[in-house]
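Researcher: Please predict.
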Amino acid sequence: MKKIAFLLPLMALLLVGCGNNDNGGGGGDGDGDGGGGNNPTYHLVAEYDFTTNGHTATGTELTADTAKTLFADSLSDGTDKISSVSDLAKVFDGNSTGGAYANTSQLVKMGTSSVDGAFTLNLVSGANIKRVVVSAFDWYKKTEPHPVNTNSLLVNGDSQLAPYNEAGTPGDLTYDLATATDTLAFQADGAGTGGNAFGRVFLFSIALYSYN
């Protein structure tokens, strides 16, 4: 009887151990989705890098035609999906005087001291952009007279403060759109006073991603 009483608990422990050996993943493949590997992913459609376009302008205001040419010249990866650029308000190829990048080419300046910068990218049908990543910087570098950033960049209404630091180093802003779209509206918005009440932002690159 003592031998049987000893064996019964031992058998119970072995059965419990076997029951806990299924990894809890339901056939998962290690990507955290619990099985199937069907997590949607972002795919780069096109990247426009203004720092590599070879342009020498320092503050030339863009028109619909010259803006489309600038984007075509700046394509650094993927396939150009821009059919037209519209609704431009004070957008410049390069920057002349003032701001963090005075007399600088191979960037896009949005806005002036009296007008918010804006433009719209109209893409080919079916581009279905779901994420936009913009390398940008505020109008000013961080200094004692300008201790905080006051300029934001909006993409389809989503507003984010422009990157801001003493060195003038651009940073990335990531916009995940609620629905995939073929139209992207960019606007600079200022939250300061006087001449700083209007949005001025520098752009260095724009990357467009689809999602599936």
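Model: Residues 75 and 168 are 24 Å apart (CA to CA).
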